[in-house]
Write a structure and sequence with these properties.
It is a single chain. This protein is of the alpha/beta class and about 375 residues long. It has 16 helices and 12 strands. A 7-stranded mixed sheet has the order 3-2-1-4-8-6-9, sandwiched between helices. A 3-stranded mixed sheet has the order 5-10-7.
């Protein structure tokens, strides 16, 4: 038994304890949208939806928005050079609603990501005091989702509210990969603590649900200021704090759902385009983080496998590994139970972690080789740094 494996077992055990403390804390401190009462007097809301080739998702999304009981809102949908039947579906839906407005997008300028350019245009047409950016693969489960979200924003006295939806997973591949998003947030991010920290790094933002006070959105520069940032949601959330505005994060999974991808292959393709970008293209940071993930989540199983094969394992290392494994099972159970994922998949967590590690490597490879793309458009080139 090498000293490296022994040290890894200690680190894994301590890391699991820290994650367990965060996760248990988030059971009470990561507030749910349902905890907020609705306010009677609500400002005008502009719901902004960029779409590009979304014929499979758009009708469900639009109908869920039009069913909202918010007293005063507009729905603006911008067609971003669609090549499928998205426009025809929208026009059919528009005939039944005065709330829905369809906008033809302008040609994409150099140096912009397509979605960012679409969202920028939408914000220019919006008339609301509040701006809600959402995605076509997102739907609203309850008709009072908008009322509660705006009420929460006003009650908390914040300038920006984002939330974690129910990230839907239907196929077995999705069920292996997708729940790790909710798990990561619930187990790694101490939500109450980062709400009190002014550092822009202390944020987590979900692009499927971003609610801004218009003044704050405009003063941070909006999408124009982050036109070339691959992870637009993370960049906007950080700018909110950078400019001194108040950021807030909620569990909106009972009100908002999103099925981002419909197979394991599309999950890998989707995250491979920007996972490296989430770390600002910093090589050492990226690989240190993903190496720690392997140590914390996989090393306990490695040690126990050696014991099963008959290798001599020091008692301390063995107990650390057993403790880590127990903590990990509890961690995954807490998250999967809260966000209503199949509990059976808790036992398959090693495959989940390895899938994400593979996506991390693939994202790095795609970035340095210039092969990263999404919906037929190349991902912009970025400066890659060691630190």
């Amino acid at each position: 038994m090498s000293s490296i494996t022994a040290l890894a077992s200690i680190f894994s055990f301590l890391g699991c304890l820290v994650l367990l403390i965060i996760s248990i804390g988030n059971l009470s401190h990561f507030r749910k949208l349902s905890e907020y009462k609705t306010i009677r007097k609500l400002p005008k809301l502009s719901v902004l939806l960029p779409v590009r080739n979304e014929e499979e998702n758009i009708e469900k999304c639009i109908l869920s928005i039009l069913k909202q009981d918010y007293p005063n809102f507009e729905l603006l949908v911008l067609l971003d050079n669609c090549e499928d039947n998205t426009e025809e579906i929208l026009k059919r839906l528009q005939k039944k609603s005065k709330t829905l407005r369809i906008i033809k997008g302008k040609p994409l300028p150099e140096g912009w990501y397509g979605k960012h350019w679409a969202c920028y245009q939408l914000s220019q047409y919006a008339q609301g005091e509040l701006l809600l950016f959402t995605d076509a693969d997102t739907s609203y489960i309850r008709k009072d989702a908008f009322r509660r979200a705006v009420s929460a924003l006003l009650i908390e006295g914040v300038d920006f509210l984002t939330g974690l939806p129910k990230e839907e997973a239907v196929s077995p591949g999705e069920k292996l990969a997708i729940p790790f998003i909710s798990f990561g947030i619930h187990s790694v991010i101490p939500v109450k603590l980062i709400s009190r920290i002014s550092s822009p790094v202390a944020t987590v933002t979900i692009g499927q649900f971003m609610l801004f006070k218009r003044e704050a959105y405009e003063n941070i520069g909006g999408y124009e200021a982050i036109r070339s940032e691959v992870a637009d949601d993370i960049a906007l959330g950080r700018r909110i704090k950078e400019f001194g505005y108040k950021w807030f994060f909620l569990d909106v999974s009972e009100y908002v759902s999103c099925r981002m991808y419909k197979s394991l292959g599309s999950v890998i393709e989707g995250f491979a385009k920007n996972l490296f970008g989430v770390f600002n293209y910093r090589i050492l940071t990226y690989f240190v983080v993903w190496s720690l993930v392997l140590v914390i989540f996989i090393n306990p199983l490695y040690v126990l496998s050696l014991k099963f094969l008959g290798y001599s394992i020091p008692k301390t290392v063995l107990y650390n590994s057993l403790g880590s494994l127990m903590a990990l099972v509890i961690l995954f159970y807490i998250s999967y139970n809260r966000f209503k994922y199949p509990i059976l998949y808790v036992l398959l967590y090693p495959f989940t972690v390895l899938i994400w590690f593979y996506m991390a490597l693939l994202s790095f490879y795609y970035t340095i080789t210039g092969k990263a793309s999404w919906k037929g458009r190349k991902v912009l080139e970025h400066e890659i740094r060691w630190l």
